[in-house]
Amino acid sequence: MHIKELFNQKNLVFSFEIFPPKVTSSIETIYETLEELKDLTPDFISVTYGAGGSLKDNKTCELSSLVKNKYGIEALAHLTCINSTREDIDSIINELKENNIENILALRGDILKGKNIIGEYNYAFELIRKIKENNNFGIAGACYPEGHIECESLEKDIKELKRKVDAGAEHLISQLFFDNNTFYEFLNRTEQKNIKVPIQAGIMPVVNKKQIERIVKISGATLPKKFIKILDKYEYDKEAIRDAGIAYAVEQIVDLVSSGVKGIHLYTMNNPYIARRITESTKSIFNSINKDVAV
User: Are 8 and 142 spatial neighbours (Cβ–Cβ below 8 Å)?
Assistant: First the structure.
């Protein structure tokens, strides 16, 4: 099933992101995580594209196949293009086809410091256009409520987003954010640019201060004052900051879905305990939103 059909069938789509195990680890190390995530009945699970977006030893297809073919959950395989040749991309697309994967999240990928760009695709919209040629995949794109960290302005970034949609992206998943008003303003801007595809809100539960400092540095996401207060108050209490982070994520989600947001994408960090806590706290609300929908 193409993921866009889920948005046609449901008022609210709920999904998880996971990442492959380290290159030195066996794929079996994630079985227990998937067993627990399966019980939470997500609409789909996205699988990130290896460490640093590297082609060598990439386990994205293997893990996506596990999600789809062993656990019966729709898989969204991430695919980056910045350091891949046309032949690389063709090879991965064919491997995904062979493994019954029907959906791809098309990304440019990170430009690694000190390394030359060797790929034939410099932008995500070019990869989307390439995937669209196959006409066999549902295609998702990424969006950035505060603008991509490398982009000079949010206005320019939304113009780039429009290029992704015009190239064939059928739904979008947002980068994490911690202020819902930022996301609502972003949605208004996308509407003004005639971007009509469903946009999922990406939610990252924060479980420790170092984690969020690293993520903010990479993503450029802004931390609201009330969130900083939480981090400062509980940073030395592991259990308290975990519970506060879960509570903050739940508060975000409840506000988002009550305001009509069409999808929530939870960045699980391969932590089924946190995914379960959040899912159980929001399940009745999600059920209420989808109760009149025949799936």
Answer: no
Distance between terminal CA atoms of the chain? 13
- pLDDT value, residue 119: 63
CA-closest candidate to residue 61, choices 92, 21, 106, 107: 92
Let me know the angle formed at the C-alpha of 78 by 74 and 79, rounded to the nearest 5 degrees: 135
Written as six digits, the tokens of 240 are 């308290």
Q: What is the pLDDT of residue 149?
A: 86
Q: How many helices (H) and strands (E) does the chain have?
A: 11, 8
Residue 193 token pair: 């640019």
Token look-up 């509570």 returns: 247
Q: Using DSSP bridges, classify how beta strands 13-18 and 44-47 pair: parallel, antiparallel or unpaired.
A: parallel
* Alpha-carbon dihedral sign for residues 196, 266, 185, 216: negative
Helix (H) or strand (E) holding 129, with range, is helix 124-134
CA–CA separation, 141 vs 128, rounded Å? 8
Report, as ranges of residue numbers, the positions in the chain whose pLDDT lies below 70.
24, 50-57, 111-119, 293-295
Say which CATH class 3-290 falls into: alpha beta
Give every CB contact of residue 236 below 8 A, 6+ residues apart in sequence: none
Tell me the sheet residues that pair with 15.
Answer: 44, 265
Question: Cβ(162)–Cβ(125) under 8 Å?
Answer: no
Which residue has tokens 């469903």?
A: 198
Beta strands in the chain (DSSP E): 13-18, 44-47, 74-80, 103-107, 138-143, 171-174, 199-203, 263-267
Eight-state DSSP code of residue 29: G
3-state secondary structure of 5: helix
* Active site positions, annotated: 17
Cβ(44)–Cβ(73) under 8 Å? yes
Pair 63, 98: CB distance under 8 Å: no
